[in-house]
Design brief:
The protein has about 160 residues and is mainly beta. The protein has one helix spanning about 85-95, and strands spanning about 5-10, 15-20, 25-30, 45, 55-60, 65-80, 95-105, 110, 120-125, 135-145, 150, 160. The strands form three sheets. A six-stranded mixed sheet has the order 11-8-7-1-4-12, with no helix packed on it.
């Protein structure tokens, strides 16, 4: 089944470490805010309507340079234009991010392992007809050495995810 159910987004600098075991993310450790006692930073949850989000990973190969990498575009659509969503989009567009995507099959995928995920495009639309969508859309881009890592579902807990 295609599509994105949820996106979990954190500042890339807030992720202390990501552990890969058997080619899968087996642990994520978050930095803390420096308070006493320390409060760990967390990924923020964004839920999406059906048929409004996707990601596409594309292998880029340059035989003459002997290099290849995987570029992924994550397209997130926020329904209904309003101030709170405009502020969120603005923050995402400026950030260096780590992203976990939950697809409609219940699988989780990690982006930002090799370098931070950054915004590459975005728009806002009012639509024309009454049935048209009124929304913001942002495209986040990840460039990595390999295809996105699947995340062990046991990693997705309230210790790293806010509003789980």
């Amino acid at each position: 089944m295609g599509g994105i159910k949820n996106a979990y987004i954190a500042n890339h600098a807030d992720v202390a470490s990501v552990t890969i075991t058997d080619d899968m993310v087996s642990a994520i450790t978050m930095n803390n805010d420096g308070a006493t006692p320390p409060v760990p930073y967390k990924f923020k949850k964004y839920a999406f309507r059906k048929n409004t989000g996707n990601y596409t990973s594309t292998l880029k190969v340059d035989p003459s340079a002997g290099s290849n990498f995987v570029s992924t575009d994550i397209v997130l659509q926020f329904s209904r234009m309003e101030t709170a969503k405009r502020i969120e989009i603005a923050a995402l567009s400026l950030g260096e991010l780590a992203v976990i995507i939950e697809d409609m099959n219940g699988k989780f995928w990690y982006f930002g392992y090799d370098e931070p995920v950054t915004a590459s495009a975005g728009d806002g639309q009012t639509g024309t007809a009454r049935a048209d969508g009124n929304r913001y859309q942002i495209t986040l881009q990840d460039n990595a050495k390999v295809w996105p890592y699947e995340v062990d579902p046991a990693v997705i807990t309230d210790t790293i995810i806010d509003n789980l």
